[in-house]
Amino acid sequence: MIKFSIIVPVYNVEQYLEECFNSLLNQTYSNYELIIVCDKCSDDSEQIVDKYVKKHKNFSKIYAEHTGLGEARNIGIKVATGDYLLFVDSDDYLEKDLLKNLDEHLTDNIDVLRFQVQDIADNKIIKHEEIGFEICTGNEAFNHIFRYHYIENSWCYVYSHKFWKKNKFKFMKNCIAEDYGLTPLVIAKAKTLKSISYIGYNYRQRENSLMTNTDYNKKIKKMDDMLLQSDYEKEEILKGEYNPKLIEFLNNSLIYYSTTLKYKDYRKYNKILKKKRCFEHLKGENFKGKIKIKILKMNSYIFYRYVVK
User: Fold this and answer.
1) Which letter does DSSP use for residue 111 in this model?
2) 3.40.50.620, 3.40.30.10, 3.90.550.10, 1.10.10.10: CATH of 4-204
3) Strand pairing partners for 277?
4) CA 214 to chain centre
5) Axis crossing angle, helix 244-258 with helix 138-145, rounded to the nearest 10
C-alpha cells in the first residue's frame, strides 16, 4: 500500500519546478506517489514534468486545461491511492525528512496532522517557530491555531484519505484563496487532529504569486471569494453540529484580510461584514487589539496622505 499521495498542480513555474521535484526525490522516506496535475503552460514547465515522469515510476502526470489550483487538486485526489493526502504548490519545496516525520507521527488513527512552515523570500529563510500540540478534536484545535494564524493553508497539513472521502471534501472552483474555503471546514470536522513542531515545508514568496500580486483587482476578488466561501462553510456546519470555533475563525479571517485593502474598500467591506454579523463572533482580545492597530495605521496613512500632504 502507498502511504502518501502528493498532489502538485503545475502552471508556468519552470524556474522553480526542478527544486520542487528534487525535494521529493531526496526524501528519506520513499513510500509515496506524486500526482502532477499539469495545466496548459506557455513556458517549459510541461517539458520538465515529462522528463521527471519518464524517469521516475512513482511520478505521474494528468493533463487538465484551465482548471485553476482548487480544481487541479480535486482532480488529483480522484486518482490518489495513498492512505494520506498531501498538497504541495509547484513553486515550493520540502525538507528532506518531512515524509519520515509525518510517518512517525501518523500512528494513532489521526484524521489530520499539521506541520510547520518557513518562508523563502529573496533567498532568505524566515522561520516561524510554532509549538505543536497533542491529539485533540478539530474544534479544540482552533484554540491552538488562533495563537498564530487567522488563515490556514492546505499545504501545512496531511490528511487521512479515508477521512477526506467520507466527508466528500472539495476545493471550490475558480476561487482565489481556495484554502480559506475548505481548510477550516476540514479542521472543524476532524475528530483527531495533531500538530508537530517540525518545520518541513518551504513556502516561496514571489512577486507574481497570487498571495503577493500587485494587481489590486486580485485582492478585491480574493475578498469577494472569501465572503462567498465563508457563506458556504457556514451553511455546511449548519447541516451538522453547530461549531462556534469555526465561525470565529472564519470571521476573524474576513475582518483581518479586509484591513489589507485600500481605505475606501475597507469601509465598503466593513459594512458588508457588519451586515453578516461577523463582528459578533470574534476570538479573544488579542485579535481585537491587532485589528485596532491595523485600523489606526490605516487612519494615520489617510490623514497624512489626504490632509497633511
Assistant:
1) S
2) 3.90.550.10
3) none
4) 20
5) 30
- Which one-letter amino acid corresponds to residue 256? Y
Rounded to 5°, angle at Cα 32 from 187 and 39: 75
Q: What is the pLDDT of residues 38-92, one digit of tens each?
A: 998 889 999 999 999 999 999 999 999 888 899 999 999 999 999 999 999 999 9
For residue 59, list its beta bridge partners. Answer: 34
Determine how β-strand 193-204 pairs with β-strand 133-136: antiparallel
HSE-CB at 161 with a 13 A cutoff on CA atoms is 19
Residue-wise DSSP of 260-303 = TS-HHHHHHHHHHHHHTTGGGS--HHHHHHHHHHHHHHHHHHHH
The model's pTM is 0.88
